[in-house]
């Protein structure tokens, strides 16, 4: 069966890769550049690493810093209007997934008619017709993989939705682990488990292929080996490099194979309770994997091996159980709450969470086990009670 494999057109990876920025801006002929980032990165001076070399080229840089975590639709609409008003001819996104997703939307929607809401997956009334402005994406976290995907996520009233199209692919991704060195432990943990979730879900996806499998397993190995160290010692260069590569590979894996049940259930957590996307994935990962374990035991045995364990003496069923246990242990070791109660969610909310999760049909379709409404509620209930499936 033929497979479509898509990669971002050009990536620079590894320590010091930011040095290629000026060269790429010149190649793409940017003159009036919109830099999308969050206020924290701007205040700590990280944006100067972008601005200084571009000012030497006598380019105009407008810095937009109204990025917030889990950005609501209104923020995306405001940014698109800003890009149009300033007649931007290039977009650079610097930051975590929120900044990068917003940068993608600014680059593409600003050259189209209408608003961001007109292009959302669940409610689209328009279609994207052309590639947007040249876009360079520079992550400062090791987690979302947004720099190599064609998806941009926004928060709605009680859930999330996406704009997805190959026009949203960046022209250039610059993945420099040096930019992640100042990432706080809590953010390192959440984004790191987010990246791990991308790799795990890509590997068990119905759309998995030998190419995405190779990317996913290597990502799982790198992240499993380095995440605990990166959280405990953020200045550990080798751990930061491994996490950077792991996140990048996980992004490529899930872009081609897709994510599934964990993300489908995580979106309502972010939408209703504004829990960070990485935390939402992390708290649900062991419970979703425990519930669907019987549908993908062989693949979970492979994941267990990629996490650094020897399953040669175990059956697939035994290894899959141990895999769930190790995923749970990793989440706990990096300090993320292991139950929904740990995030202040009450039991009455499980019904509305379930209702919103069932709408994520794009994601649920990739699950190796069909997840109906009652299955989704059972997973939320287990995550609420902190009871893993045996």
Automatic annotation (TrEMBL):
Q: Which superkingdom does the taxonomy of this entry point to?
A: Bacteria
Q: Where is each Alcohol dehydrogenase iron-type/glycerol dehydrogenase GldA domain found?
A: 12-177
Q: Which family does it belong to?
A: Belongs to the iron-containing alcohol dehydrogenase family.
Question: What EC class is this?
Answer: oxidoreductase
Source organism of the structure: Metasolibacillus meyeri
Q: Which GO terms describe its molecular function?
A: alcohol dehydrogenase (NAD+) activity; metal ion binding
Occurrences of domain Fe-containing alcohol dehydrogenase-like C-terminal (ranges)? 188-384
Q: State the protein's name.
A: Iron-containing alcohol dehydrogenase
InterPro entries, sorted:
ADH_Fe/GldA, ADH_Fe_C, ADH_Fe_CS, Alcohol_dehydrogenase_Fe
The parts of the chain that form a coiled coil are none
EC number(s) stated in the UniProt entry for this protein: 1.1.1.-
**Keywords for the protein's UniProt record, in alphabetical order:** NAD, Oxidoreductase
């Amino acid at each position: 069966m033929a497979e479509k494999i898509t990669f971002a057109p050009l990536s620079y990876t590894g320590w010091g890769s930011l040095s290629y920025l000026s060269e790429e801006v010149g190649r793409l002929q940017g003159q009036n550049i919109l830099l999308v980032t969050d206020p924290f990165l701007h205040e700590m001076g990280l944006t100067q690493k972008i601005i200084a070399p571009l000012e030497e080229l006598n380019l105009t840089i407008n810095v937009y810093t109204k990025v917030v975590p889990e950005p609501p639709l209104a923020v995306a609409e405001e940014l698109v209007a800003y890009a149009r008003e300033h007649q931007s001819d290039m977009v650079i996104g610097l930051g975590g997934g929120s900044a990068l997703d917003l940068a993608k939307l600014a680059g593409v929607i600003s050259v189209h008619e209408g608003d961001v809401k007109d292009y959302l997956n669940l409610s689209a009334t328009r279609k994207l017709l052309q590639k947007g402005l040249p876009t360079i994406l520079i992550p400062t976290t090791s987690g979302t993989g947004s720099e190599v995907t064609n998806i941009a996520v926004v928060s709605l009233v009680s859930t999330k939705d996406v704009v997805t199209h190959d026009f949203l692919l960046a022209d250039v991704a610059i993945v420099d682990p040096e930019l992640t060195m100042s990432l706080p432990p809590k953010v390192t943990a959440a984004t790191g488990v987010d990246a791990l979730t991308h790799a795990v879900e890509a590997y068990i996806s119905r759309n998995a292929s030998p190419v995405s499998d190779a990317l996913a397993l290597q990502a799982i190995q790198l992240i499993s080996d380095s995440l605990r160290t990166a959280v405990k010692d953020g200045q550990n260069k080798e751990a930061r490099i491994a996490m950077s590569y792991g996140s990048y590979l996980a992004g490529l894996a899930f872009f081609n194979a897709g994510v599934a049940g964990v993300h489908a259930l995580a979106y309502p957590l972010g939408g209703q309770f504004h829990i960070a996307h990485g935390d939402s994935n992390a708290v649900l990962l062991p419970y979703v994997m425990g519930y669907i374990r019987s549908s993908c035991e062989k693949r979970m045995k492979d994941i267990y091996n990629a996490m650094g364990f020897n399953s040669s003496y175990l059956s697939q069923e035994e290894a899959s159980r141990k895999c769930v246990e190790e995923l749970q242990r990793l989440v706990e070791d990096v300090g993320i709450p292991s139950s929904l109660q740990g995030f202040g969610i009450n039991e009455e909310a499980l019904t509305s969470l379930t209702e919103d999760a069932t709408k994520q049909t794009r994601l649920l379709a990739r699950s190796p086990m069909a997840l109906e409404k009652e299955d989704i509620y059972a997973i939320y209930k287990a995550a609420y009670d902190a009871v893993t499936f045996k």
